[in-house]
Prior knowledge:
This protein is 29% helix and 16% strand. It has helices spanning 2-15, 57-68, 105-115, 165-178, 248-262, 291-301, 304-318, 324-337, 361-371, 379-382, 444-457, and strands at 76-83, 88-92, 123-129, 137-142, 146-149, 183-189, 218-220, 266-267, 272-273, 284-287, 386-387, 407-414, 417-425, 431-439. Strands 2-1-14-13-12-11 form a six-stranded antiparallel β-sheet, sandwiched between helices. Strands 3, 4, 6, 8, 9 and 10 form a six-stranded mixed β-sheet that branches. It starts with a helix and ends with a helix. The protein is built from eleven helices and 14 strands. Helix 4 crosses helix 5 (248-262). With 461 residues, it is of the alpha/beta class.
Amino acid sequence: MVTLALCVTYIVADAFDIVPGSLTFVGVDRPSFSSAQQAYKSSTLFTSIEKNRAVDSAQAASVVKELLAAEGLGSDVSVVIADASGKVSAEHNSSVAREPASTLKTLTAFTASSVLDMNATLDTEVYLNQSESDGVAQLVLKGNGDMLLSDGDNDAAHINGRAGLGTLAKESAQALTARGITTVRLSYDDSLFGSDRKPTGIEENDAEWRYFTPISSMAVDGGRQWTDTARDSNPDVESSYPTRSTQTALDAATTFAAKLRSNGIKVDAEPSAATAPANISPLVKVSSAKLSEIMAFMLRNSDNTEAELLGRLSAIKLGTGNSSAGAVKAVEQTLSGNSINTTSLHMADCSGLSPGSKVTATTLDEIQHRFIESGNSTAAAAEALSVTGLVGTAADRATNASANGLLRVKTGTLSNVTSMAGNVSRRAGGALSFSVIINNPENAWSATQAINAFMTKLPEL
């Protein structure tokens, strides 16, 4: 009777929300939602851009004239504005080839998004070979191009660090323990990109290796060495530039060995280079972010290493040669195959960091025009551009908040170059594309400000 009385008392108390429980007399709040003002099918969204809406040539010419009259530009200036149909509305020296800096990355992005599976991942794998003559099992860590590994657990919330060596080691240790293996010898396979890992002369603009490291099959955080610099709070935003390691695959293997030891596996000796065994499946693996996400990381941070990586992966896919020259050939071949004007194009690399690249404003603009066209495969690149007021290197470049969210661009900066290329949602409807390249400015800061003012006016055309 006492037990029954206690139960009844608790039920009543629960119903009146005096004690925790699922019973209640309180009614359920039913949220109300206002009706949508207008609904669209996803297949019809793009057509609302009104890509046949012309740009007023006189207004476009006036905006170009204001740019050219700005202080500090010098005389080496090319600029073009075109409507969404590709018709040029205004231009100045658009056929003159100039050094593009990082706007060259848009050519690489166009190529990679055209030829690679943007839903694919770059897997870092562990292979087990138990046939060693001395009885010690051999593990081989094999990279497939993920240079944004983390040294900890998989991070589903970020691109940089999506795959973690900590998770890979933990799962490897579990698989080894299940087989009764407690001691291994570790090797690493860094053979994916052969011996040619960097464009010739790229270090001329990066003597301390802060903006690039030779590509490899794997790297932790792009090889950044955070010894004297505070690590960026958001791994997907590059705001600090510590020096980068130039032996990133070995570093990744060394980190992996340390993680194995912390998970109870004895690692016999230091990691050494080897080749992963053929015709067997990996013991475990971790997967990078999708290539479309890596594309966004590359363009929004203007990451030179990832640009060269995407160029090389494109070259391997197209069979143009597993080399820096092969990567350039892959880009040039893809542009020509898509009828993009490549007159006077010379690519020293796939990132724009190496000195010597030349491209016309026309070529940069035609790439942007393709990004706003429908029916092609470049959506991953188009969606990966920096957006004014929101994300990437151009987040703070608009001179008026009214332009925020309306420009999707790629910036370019070297000591003697400031440039920009992008596409614009126009306030009156429709879209346009543009590009501007300034070489040898009289005042680099003033030239950059002039570009900022120029692009901020474009949504009003």
